[in-house]
Amino acid sequence: MAHPYAGQPIVLTSKHRKLHLIAPPFTEQIGCTLQELSLDTDQLGTFTGEIERTAPPRETAIAKARLGMRASGLQLGIASEGSIGADPLIPFMQSDIEHLVLVDDARGIVISETHRSFDIIAETTTVAPGDGLTQFLIDADFPNHALIVRPHSSTTGDAIKGITDHAELRDAITSRAALSPDGLVVIESDLRAMHSPSRQKNIAEVARQLAARVAQLCPACHLPGWGRVGYERGLHCSACGREQPNALRQERLGCVGCDHTELGTLLATTLDPANCGGCNP
User: Between the CA of residue 90 and those of 93, 95, 118, 122, what are the distances in Å?
Assistant: First the structure.
């Protein structure tokens, strides 16, 4: 069966040059054509806080996709949204959670994938003009990763972004310190996609995952987007026999459009005693 998106144009809404990261797996696996449309997606929220993101990441990505769909007149749209900061499961670590969605208004479906990675460079420091920055710049992988400088007293506005040159960095520190009552500036990683190579890798990975999901058609209704929707849980410990009801046993696959589900990959048949609450409390 031919894929319904083969040969179809899809609009990618992005202000931050993501086409080369997202398009290849869709072209290779599905045969569709992505067209990048640069619109003011900052209206939905910015990393630096000038505009607060009010919706969850997945819904923000859907809103971005629909901006491009309305502007282009296409019924297929793709957009991404990233969240970088304290990890929701391991708060003392920093993670990058990338959401990517494909919106299909002709079929009334949204197909999405999420990729969580600890491989992200997102540094910040507060300094005065003339302070040493050697270790910070090493940690921030400057100038490979760009920086933002803003007055310490302000979290919004007055920021200089996309800094990739040492002279430009010195000038930005001097000019932004002059705007700050305490004479300090905040220097932080510029997390916009075109300025963050470590984030680019995560966007490329979530694109690969979403393309693989979109490529699969539902066995029942033949809509794109067949894939994992959850897990079957519950395993008995191989040593003591005690059941751990939350242990992952098998993938559960499902459709984004109908209620058809099937069991997928078997992950385990028994629980390792190292993960048993009785054997290893």
Answer: 6, 9, 10, 16
Phi, psi of 32 (to 5 degrees): -95, 170
Structure tokens at 252: 């559960």
Q: Which residues of 247-259 are buried (b: 16+ CB within 10 A; e: fewer)?
A: bebbbebbbbbee
Looking at the DSSP assignment, which residues form a beta bridge with residue 79?
Answer: 101
The full set of domains in the chain, from first to last, is: 9-119+196-215 (3.90.950.10), 124-189 (3.30.1490.20), 229-275 (no CATH)
Cβ 77 vs Cβ 10: under 8 Å: yes
User: How far is Cα 259 from Cα 230, in angstroms, rounded to an integer?
Assistant: 13
- Greatest Cα pair distance in the chain: 68
Q: Hey, what amino acid is at 34?
A: L
pTM of the model: 0.89
Of all residues in the chain, the percent with pLDDT exceeding 70 is 95
- The closest alpha carbon to 76, from 84, 65, 87, belongs to 65
Residues 52, 1: Cα–Cα separation, whole Å: 44
**Both tokens of residue 60?**
């923000």
Q: Report how far residue 68's alpha carbon sits from residue 44's, in angstroms, rounded to the nearest whole number.
A: 13
Alpha-carbon torsion, ordered 222, 61, 190, 163, to 10 deg: 90
In the predicted model, is pLDDT for residue 11 greater than 70?
yes
pLDDT at 268: 95
Q: Give the C-alpha separation, 213 to 228, whole Å.
A: 9
Query: What sign has the CA pseudo-torsion 150, 155, 157, 163?
Result: positive
- Taking the C-alpha atoms of residue 159 and residue 34, their distance in angstroms, rounded to an integer, is 32
**Predicted local confidence at residue 1, as pLDDT:** 72
